[in-house]
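Handoff note, outgoing to incoming analyst
You'll be picking up this chain. Sequence as last confirmed:
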Amino acid sequence: MRGRLVDDERPAVGAGHGVGDRVGAEHARGPSAPGVCHPGHLRPRQRLEHSGARALDQPDLPEAAQITTGDAAPGAPITLDPVVGLLREALLTYGHRPGDRVREAPLALRLGLSRRVVRAGLRALAEEGMLDLLPGGATEIPEVTAKDVLDLYALRASLGAPLMRRIAMLGRENLAPASAALAEVQAAARDNDHLRIREVDLRYQDALARIADLPQAAHTFERLTARLRMFVTVLDMDYSQACDTIAGEDTAVHDALRDADGNEAARLWRVKIERCVRYMIAQLSEDDVAPYLWTTLADRPRLRPGEPRGAAR
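Most recent structure output, in case you need it:
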């Protein structure tokens, strides 16, 4: 059973103290003088070493959780504050249940940060959409109901279509970041790495959103990704039977964008979303309203001959 970082007041062994105060103070002072190493100028691993914070009293974090900034991998979550990156890694790596309240004290002890800094970092994650913000400033793991899933994916479907058409307008020379992210998806599929593919698939989608150069749409899309990332973690989604399907869907969307066929890319995006919804809903308790609500919110995708209708993902 993975260690819990929510609703768990037991102190961790060997945690440091006060690191978060130093990190916070450095950020408050702004960029350092020439010749001084400032955390904001470092890559993720260097930032952790510089701050002295340890990413839990466990062995290494999974590779997908280690990458937290835009300069690390195309489509990865952009984190300017290393504390927010640490907290995201911790919450996505260790087990918790929907509706669990996130406790600041265990996180502070485990990560060697002050509670004040942890509290600010959790609020930042709530603003991202990854956590729910409660009255009084506390945060909790979001509930995952059929309506929540349908609500999120209906927005994701509607935002994705104009993003795809916009990317197709910009030309294939702008696709380099998405091409690199797609290579990660294809590599995970070849290795049948179902844990990694659920992360790199989301990175590919965010890489596309950033390419579109529609700031408001991309910002909203990435907030939905942050929440979806938590849904996937909370439900412990198993994509072991869907690696090839995910890679195939992403490759088909990418090929349409390379051909500057925005309408086809938007259609393929909608088909992908439909399968995502059906697969995630299948992980939840039976809800007779879900299929009808989805059809009302998002209508039906247009399938081409030979495209399966089932829940491939």
